[in-house]
């Protein structure tokens, strides 16, 4: 082997190795198109508010109810500071027992209802074991459902100078209802209680500005039409939350709800996933908005709930980033450059573009190295270097295709149906609203599917099919090189090439067999159901055959035809000149 050939081989090998290294670096970048990596969430949550800190803030402001929900979330997640938070909550409840029924300091309620420590449990033994077992706040609906409580509240709100409060109170006289019994009829206690609760929340400015405006408009329309109409849905949702939350918990939630839609989503989540209520409630405080948290959970269901749990354990910044992006977490076990996670959070689009460009550049360098170094001995240096521009274009097209495959393989949610129905989507439900007993929650397991992603078996199947087609590609190139190296006439070489048509089409045959095999294995349950794995084999076969027959076989045949015609033209003697 000459020194020039050795230098070419070394340069080609170095080019391929640089491309492989560049591809690995791009793969390790912790950024994805439609998902967040755990490394990014950890970077976003670093140094932000932790669960125990949020709970301590509630305790310091004497908001016992929200603190108990944060404590429940901390225990559910196994936070080490949960017991310290429990001790602080127990100390607050012991020092201020009058705060326990409604979950904290509630000046809007205490003077009206005159409730005191009599509603608290007398001892820890009555509630159960544990230091904080006696801390049980009272759902606000239970405080308002008695006739005496409603009468006292009605008398207090009657003197309100707020137009909005009076508009809401006037809906008590509306006769046309759907699922409620009218408030002024026997059995109308639930509707009467929720109307008074709405007016009290409005009077004490607990509703968010958007929710206040929407409630006032709905109440005005209901009074004008003498029918609850859309206002009834609002009352149903508020009633559902009031059956589960104490006064302070409810007031804190509605103050962060941007409208009746968010309130309805939280009521729905509380009905179908009551065990997740502490997680959902706490996430709303971390995110600073109940709207985004509710939208995220309604969209992704139980998968979104698990992602929210992971983010809660990492800190408030992780929760904010998750619900702001509204994408799932990529739970793959692949390594990542955690040092760049913070940069990818601050500049996600630039980092993603850098990653995809790295894939493209890596594939281009690998193809150039393979073509110039490994294929030159078979195809001849002249064939490789005859048309440098054409070779660059061909390598570029191959690189684009390979980069696209890499993107599909490393983006688990790119082709997944992330908008499919989740367990937490709305379902038709007609509760018996005349009964204020706590409703039995629907089982979340009864509903449909989770968000699909590209699992390990799918990735392995795609990789196997791709490697098979790469092997067939190199076998076909070797066969072309063997025919090219033979000292035969061009027409004979052309016939030999045509004789190998079945070999050059073998990529298509193997691709179809791979598709059939994958479908059979999916039916038998050997691999997970994913049509991408099956049809990828056929796609790879088509690409392999197209590359072999269009890029290599067609060019080789053209060269042989031209060579044969040129040789034939030279062999025909020139006609003798005709004498006069």
List keywords for this structure.
single chain, 580 residues, mainly alpha, 28 helices, 66% helix, elongated
A few lines on this structure:
By secondary structure, this protein is mostly helical. The protein has 28 helices and no strands. It has helices at residues 3-28, 38-45, 51-60, 64-77, 82-95, 110-113, 124-127, 140-144, 147-158, 163-170, 189-203, 209-225, 231-242, 247-254, 260-272, 277-287, 290-314, 316-325, 341-346, 348-374, 376-379, 381-385, 388-410, 456-485, 490-499, 501-504, 506-524, 531-571.
Describe this structure in words.
By secondary structure, the chain is mainly α. The chain is built from 28 helices and no strands. It has helices spanning 3-28, 38-45, 51-60, 64-77, 82-95, 110-113, 124-127, 140-144, 147-158, 163-170, 189-203, 209-225, 231-242, 247-254, 260-272, 277-287, 290-314, 316-325, 341-346, 348-374, 376-379, 381-385, 388-410, 456-485, 490-499, 501-504, 506-524, 531-571. The protein is elongated.
Encode the helix/strand succession as letters: HHHHHHHHHHHHHHHHHHHHHHHHHHHH
Strand content: under 5%
Q: What is the 3D shape?
A: elongated
Q: Distance N terminus to C terminus?
A: 61 Å
Helicity range: 55-70%
Major β-sheet annotation: none
Taking all Cα atoms into account, the compactness measure Rg is: 36 Å
* Individual helix count: 28
What structural class do you assign from the helix and strand content?
Answer: mainly alpha
Low-confidence stretches: 115-133, 434-453
Number of strands: 0
Mean pLDDT score: 77
């Amino acid at each position: 082997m000459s020194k020039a050939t050795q230098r070419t081989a070394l340069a080609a090998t170095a080019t391929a190795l640089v491309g492989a290294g560049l591809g690995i670096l791009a793969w390790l970048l912790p950024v994805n198109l439609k998902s967040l990596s755990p490394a990014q969430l950890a970077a976003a949550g670093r140094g932000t508010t932790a669960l125990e800190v949020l709970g301590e803030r509630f305790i310091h402001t004497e908001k016992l109810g929200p603190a108990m929900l944060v404590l429940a979330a901390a225990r559910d997640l196994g936070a080490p500071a949960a017991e310290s938070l429990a001790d602080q909550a127990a100390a607050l409840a012991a020092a201020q027992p009058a705060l326990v029924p409604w979950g904290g300091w509630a000046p809007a309620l205490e003077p009206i209802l005159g409730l005191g420590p009599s509603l608290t449990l007398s001892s820890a033994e009555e509630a159960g074991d544990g230091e904080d077992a006696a801390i049980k706040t009272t759902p606000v609906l239970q405080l308002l459902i008695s006739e005496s409580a409603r009468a006292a509240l009605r008398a207090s709100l009657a003197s309100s100078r707020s137009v909005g409060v009076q508009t809401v109170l006037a809906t008590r006289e509306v006769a046309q209802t759907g699922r409620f019994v009218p408030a002024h009829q026997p059995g109308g206690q639930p509707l009467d209680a929720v109307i008074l609760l709405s007016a009290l929340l409005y009077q004490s400015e607990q509703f968010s500005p958007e929710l206040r405006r929407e409630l006032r408009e709905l109440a005005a329309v209901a009074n004008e039409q003498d029918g609850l109409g859309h206002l009834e849905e609002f009352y149903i949702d508020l009633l559902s939350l009031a059956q589960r939350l104490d006064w302070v918990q409810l007031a804190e939630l509605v103050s962060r709800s941007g409208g009746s839609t968010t309130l309805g989503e939280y009521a729905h989540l509380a009905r179908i996933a009551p065990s997740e209520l502490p997680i959902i409630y706490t996430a709303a405080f971390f995110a600073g908005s109940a709207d985004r948290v509710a939208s995220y959970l309604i969209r992704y269901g139980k998968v979104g709930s698990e992602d929210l749990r992971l983010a809660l354990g990492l800190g408030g910044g992780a929760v904010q980033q998750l619900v702001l992006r509204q994408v799932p977490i990529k739970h793959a076990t692949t390594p990542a450059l955690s040092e760049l996670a913070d940069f990818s959070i601050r500049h996600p689009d630039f980092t993603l573009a850098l990653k995809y460009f790295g894939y493209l550049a890596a594939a281009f360098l690998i193809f150039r190295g393979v073509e110039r170094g490994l294929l030159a001995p078979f195809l001849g240096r002249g064939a490789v270097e005859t048309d440098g521009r054409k070779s660059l274009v061909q390598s570029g097209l191959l690189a684009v295709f390979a980069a696209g495959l890499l993107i599909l393989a490393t983006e688990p949610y790119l082709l997944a149906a992330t908008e499919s129905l989740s367990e937490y989507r709305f379902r038709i439900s007609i509760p018996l609203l005349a009964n204020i007993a706590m409703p039995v929650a629907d089982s979340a397991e009864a509903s449909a599917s989770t968000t699909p992603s590209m699992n390990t078996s799918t990735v392995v199947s795609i990789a196997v099919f791709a490697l098979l087609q790469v092997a067939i590609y190199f076998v076909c190139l070797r066969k072309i090189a063997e025919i090219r190296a033979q000292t035969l006439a061009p027409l004979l070489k052309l016939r030999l090439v045509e004789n190998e048509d079945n070999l050059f089409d073998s990529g298509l045959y193997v691709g179809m067999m791979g598709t059939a095999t994958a479908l059979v294995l999916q039916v038998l349950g050997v691999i997970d159901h994913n049509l991408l794995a099956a049809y990828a084999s056929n796609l790879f076969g088509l690409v392999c055959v197209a590359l072999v027959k269009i890029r290599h076989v067609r060019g080789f045949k053209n060269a042989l035809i031209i060579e044969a015609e040129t040789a034939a033209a030279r062999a025909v003697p020139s006609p003798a000149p005709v004498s006069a």
